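This week, think about what follows.
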Amino acid sequence: MSADETKKTPEVKAAREVKKPAAKKAVAKPAAKKPAAKKAVAKPAAKKAVAKPAAKKPAAKKAAAPKPAAKKAAPEKPVEKAPFERPARVKAEKKAPAEPRRGKLGVATVVDAAGKDLETRDLSKDLFAVPADVNTLHLVVRAEQAARRRGTASSKTRGEVSGSTAKLYRQKGTGRARAGSVKSPLRTGGGVTFGPRPRSFAIKVNRKVVRKALAMALSNRAENGNVFVVAGLKIDAPSTATMDEFLVNLDIAAPVLVVTHDEPTVTKSVRNLRYAEASEVGALSTEQVLRARSLVLTEKAFAALNEA
């Protein structure tokens, strides 16, 4: 039998048609119940703030029976307060130094050896009543200071310095700068270019101008009452202590210029005092008078100066 015929036989068919066990039907599992979401529990409503009953203020006492109206006082004016001021600090009072004594203006005050006033003397108008001129005084003082300069400063030029005149080395080929004499001002030991030379610093001023300037200076001191004449001052031997005591008792403005006339003991007694200087009448200069604030003249010096 062929294969096809075999398939068609009833037995084979029956054998094939053996009932297969029915597949177990999938039992539908009951759906798991999800736990129900918790219902939001309504929170209890917040307690409403209970309005507290307003505290009853004690009733104001009833005004008593009206009193009889008093007389109305006049309205007081507002008192203006003074602005605040801090009390000033009390400083220790410094005693001002006593001003030096002055003589009478325009005249010479005569004093004794103890420094007491005796009298006054008139001054020559030609010498003690001349108006001042600053330009004239400046010219004369500058001339007096310049005349004291010696003018001896000196230096040597290249022609005065000792040394050889030979050329130091050849002109070319050395690589150095050309050089001639060893006495060149560019070299150590050489001459000085435009150095100081002895000369006079004198400034020519006419004699009349010099006398006029001296009269101007003397007039200024007399105008301020700073001219004194000493009467009866006798110093046998030079004594700085004696002169210092006299000037201190005289109590005049310093520095002091003591003018003498052929009185060496007085001149020597003054030369060691720091606040005073002495001068002869013939050598009196405008610079000395202007440098001093007070003039003290001996009787001899006053007679020679006032009559000149």
